[in-house]
Give the backbone structure.
Amino acid sequence: GAVVSQHPSRVICKSGTSVKIECRSLDFQATTMFWYRQFPKKSLMLMATSNEGSKATYEQGVEKDKFLINHASLTLSTLTVTSAHPEDSSFYICSARVLGGANVLTFGAGSRLTVL
Amino acid sequence: QQQVKQSPQSLIVQKGGISIINCAYENTAFDYFPWYQQFPGKGPALLIAIRPDVSEKKEGRFTISFNKSAKQFSLHIMDSQPGDSATYFCAATDAGGTSYGKLTFGQGTILTVHP
């Protein structure tokens, strides 16, 4: 149980385009999801907290207009990288907190974004 | 105060040996300390976690030791196997607070187990 699916797993786009990454909780409801960014051989850095039905909370230094987060249902959060540039190339990973669960945090498999 | 410091950056161990990774934290509000294993191109997977009300937790070959007064915790991998070769991250969060789930990660340790 408690599976989080991310799609796409890999995406390559041209500079200036926008890319949407989906994070789905497959067998549970998640009122809260988290988006992390990971550079090669580096640690995970929290970007934002995604709350179902309300605005996301962004960490300091994260551009909310660049990284649009939408959490429209209890099983889906999306991260849209707008006007992507090569420096946005990274590994984006989401995690979800199981609603009512006891301290269960499940991570997705990640989405590798490459901006040419 | 939100930092979690992890060491060493990399670790090479022979098969059958013990791998030890250490972490230290500053925020006394942290009360949930998970360890994650990550393979290249994959998301992190929970290995084992501990709360500060116990000093040690063991699951199979993996053991967490926790020292609340020193604000340190460590992961011990007994009988290390080549399949354990991965990057390991310690993390911490305030499980009882509204920030639960906002994990602060250590810098990561690349473990290589030689056959």
About this structure: The radius of gyration of chain B is 14 Å.
